[in-house]
Amino acid sequence: MILYADMSGERLDAFLARAVPELTRSAAQRLIEEGQVRRNGRPGKKNDKLSVGDAVEYTIPEPKETDIVPTQMDLKIVYEDEDLLVIDKPKGLVVHPAAGHQDDTLVNGLLYALGDDLSGINGELRPGIVHRIDKDTSGLLAVAKNDRAHTFLASQLKDHTMARTYEAIVCGSFREDSGTVDAPIGRHPSDRKKMTVTERNSKHAVTHWEVVRRYRGYTHIRCRLETGRTHQIRVHMAHIGHPILGDTVYGRKKPELGQDSQVLHAGSLCFRHPKDGRPVLVFAPLPEYFTQVLEKLEKMQ
How many percent of the chain have pLDDT more than 70? Predict the structure, then answer.
């Protein structure tokens, strides 16, 4: 595939990530490092500065054969058609294999349920997964069954037209009924497993929030993501002094109200269907762990 640069001074990896919907910046860099990208006929470097009209030729290799073991599990599918499905992921389920989780992840379950009927754009470790949510976050996750659907959905993530709404219980009380956190997020300088609000090597991040109900010492809020950075809601809420209840990584270090992981639920997902562009709106009701916390808070009023 050949693209032509439309602005001068842009880095090669940034151009690819902008021009190719299914590529993240890191994925574009991997392609360049693997020799899959040529600039004006010569191997490119990720920090090459482009000129208008430069020819950028790239190849996305076929997905590698996976050795992930299909595992039978009870997946809660809330929407499905021939192009995609939406899963209501339970709290505690890891999305894709990693150290310590090789055969008990959502991907293992999807491979058992769907076999080869999954897209492969994201390679061997994330077949079909268009976006992900944290292990201890519950709620909706879109899965593509073919590469065309995957590319179409990924483009909506990139241009922020896929609407994702989350429910959360945070510590403390808000004076306002709604607001916006507009603060860039990047890797924590000393703890590489964490993210933080920083101007250094960061990405633009915006979270809109509104109060659902106030309780004594806590607030039930609804958040709408304008961008989708790693741990975005958790980092943004902690940044403004309202960490998510149970989030011992970004918030209070001791469990509260019996919660030792974040009370955060991806409750709705809205996107345009890859086949005909019609809007698809999917909801996931609050799970039991979340409603139990709300019941405790009601009794504390």
Answer: 93
Q: CB-based burial of residue 103 (10 Å sphere; 0-12 exposed, 13-18 middle, 19+ buried)?
A: exposed
Q: Is the pLDDT of residue 8 over 70?
A: yes
Active-site positions read 134
Distance (Å, whole) CA 216 – CA 293: 13
Indicate whether 278 belongs to any domain: no
Tell me what pLDDT residue 49 has.
95
Domain contains 204: yes
What six digits make up the tokens of 274? 């890859």
294 and 196 part of one domain: yes
pTM of the entire structure?
0.79
CATH code for the domain in which residue 20 is found: 3.10.290.10
Weakest mean pLDDT among 25-29, 105-109, 233-237, 285-289: 25-29
Domain membership of residue 100 as a residue range: 77-159
Among 69, 88, 89, 70, residue whose Cα is nearest residue 79: 88
Strand order in the sheet with 55-58: 2-4, 55-58, 37-39, 42-43
Q: Are 26 and 20 in contact (CB under 8 A)?
A: no
Considering the domain architecture, whether residues 18 and 44 belong to the same structural domain is answered as yes
For tokens 């960490």, name the residue: 243
- In this structure, what DSSP letter does residue 65 have? P
What total of structural domains would you count in the chain? 3
